[in-house]
Amino acid sequence: MVKNIQINPKELDQRLSRRSFLQGALLTGAAVAGLAVTGCVPQETKPGSDQAGEVKTKPLPLIFKSEEYADGEIVDADLLIIGSGYAGLWALMTAHEKGVANIAVMDKGAIGHSSVASLTLGTSAYVLPEEGDDLDATLEEVVRDADYLSRQDIWYDMFSKSKERLDKINSMGLAYMAPGRLTSDGNVELKISGGTAYTDSTGTDRVCGKAAVCCYMDQVKDYEDVKYFSKTMATELLKEGDRVVGAVGVNRTNGNAVAIRAKATIVATGQCTFKGQHAITEIETGDGYQLVYDAGGRLNNLEFNSFDVDPVGYMLEGGSILCEMGSILENVNGEDFMWSIDPERGCGCNVAYSTRGMAMEVAAGRGPIFCNRKTEVFGEVGQNEHWLPFLSPGSWQRTNEDRFADIGFDLVETPQKFTANSFGIIGAIVTDVNCKTDLPGLFAASVAVSTDPGKIKGVESQRGLWTGIQSGTSSAEYLGSAADVTLADSEIAGILANANVILGRKGTLSANELITKLQRQVFDYRVGLLKTEESLTAALAVCRECQVLLNQVSIDDSHELIKFYEARNMVNIAELHLLASIDRKETRVCHLRMDYPERKDGEWLKWIEWTKGADGKPNKSYRNVPFDEFPVQPDATKGLNAVVRTITA
């Protein structure tokens, strides 16, 4: 039986607090968006190497000069890209290579620095038929593990072009340090290529997500016909009739508002995680969702949650990787319960199932849950062949291991208390396979493009690269025949004035207080993990209370203005998330309804889509999954939900 042992943060002398941990790792290691069962060790470098100091002490270079602008200024461009992560940089690279000049890039953080990408392991999924990979089998596996709601056309195009992307990446000097085709999330066909290594233009050796970001920044840093609007948050898209013609943004340092009037616009922002429990999820506040929704675009799959399992009391981004390497999850009775959840893969299953199993055990009174590394598989295979490569200099894992070693705590000998976390939502912006939205002149990229409601770690970077190429290509083609923008300065002036008119407003609460009120609802396990009609309806009432309270938020300075916009975006997207969760009366992949435990293919092989009504209220519609056009057909005996027929609490 596993003893009830919990790591006490006080015992660690606060050395594993979030602040000290981030300072020690300098945000350079693996995080939940990029974790996979791969290595992240530079060639000829061992985990114990003295090179760790150099890796951890140099931040990303500031290589882009930001434009300065007066309050109310209007700037013209051919193409506006909102976001500068993997997708934004690849969209910029692609559009520029295709001859697009006069490009503007807007980012609410420092250009190239604020995206989730730089915090990840830098892994990516590739399907290489010349190495024996089976494209059709890979597609079937991904669709099955999303319980058949995948955009199969997008996944097929993404996989089929992966060799082309990999060749281009290699030509840039970005190398995968663990090309040995290791699996992730219990998938057999889908392979993840390991973390990246790159020597940037300053001569600094980079690893993991920072290596990829620095490589892509180096590709575009010498473009002379690009203007960068750093620390500028896009607050509203500009429209000329139905056509999107740019955006308005607010500078987070001085509160100045600027309008970028553009013939084409790409929204390349992150997901909506409601400032979740992990370092990278504190960045993603649904900004792109709100922009597109307000402009009349479609969102879908908002009912599906993003999950992972993590230790209590210290940082380990994406703890499910330990299960994939042979560790086991045990309930308070010492039982390896995951075999009853997934009889084929046990704890090595998709993380959506691990979190479901843990939540069910706790709900049944068999918690808390512990992660036990003292298994034969982890000891003989997982630890040596898979876990040690994760301990690269500067990684989150390496920092954890070193600090525990300093105080004599053995992570293998002592089971750690684990918890299942919900970080946010998986759903996103609806586009076609070319990343075009329904609105003329508007394209989407990054994880903000809806692909399916499942969660397979390690593919987010692939989606960023692919969507960047697709949106960059499509916008370049669109610009070839796009008419000039005729939206007058006088019409834009009113929108500009509204963007920061509330700066200096006095209220009864802060944006942080409002966000905390929202977080207490969306992160409650009865709302994020074990959903019921009652719990969701109660959370929706609080969410709508938060919408009213937005009018009472104090906005003392420009930083609080940005926080207000983030709070607004999260509250509004939370409403759609809860409405969709109430509406889908079944259980499927990352959506567990305790009161509707079965997957209902006959009724729910469809997407719930949301647009903003003329009255400003959410407008719901349904779209059937077009299986007459897709190669993989639904199978009632397969999928993440197929092996669990009865859920008891």
What does this entry look like structurally?
The chain has 649 residues and is an alpha+beta fold. It has three domains: 73-304 and 426-494, FAD/NAD(P)-binding domain, CATH 3.50.50; 308-422, Succinate dehydrogenase/fumarate reductase flavoprotein, catalytic domain (Flavocytochrome C3, Chain A, domain 1), CATH 3.90.700; 502-648, Methane Monooxygenase Hydroxylase, Chain G, domain 1. The chain contains 20 helices and 21 strands. The strands form five sheets. Strands 1, 2, 9, 10, 11, 12 and 19 form a seven-stranded mixed sheet that branches. Strand 20 (606-612) and strand 21 (618-624) form a beta hairpin. Helix 4 (135-144) packs antiparallel against helix 5, helix 16 (511-522) packs parallel to helix 19 and helix 18 runs antiparallel to helix 19 (558-583). The two termini are 23 Å apart. Residues 1-57, 179-184 and 645-649 have low confidence and may be disordered.
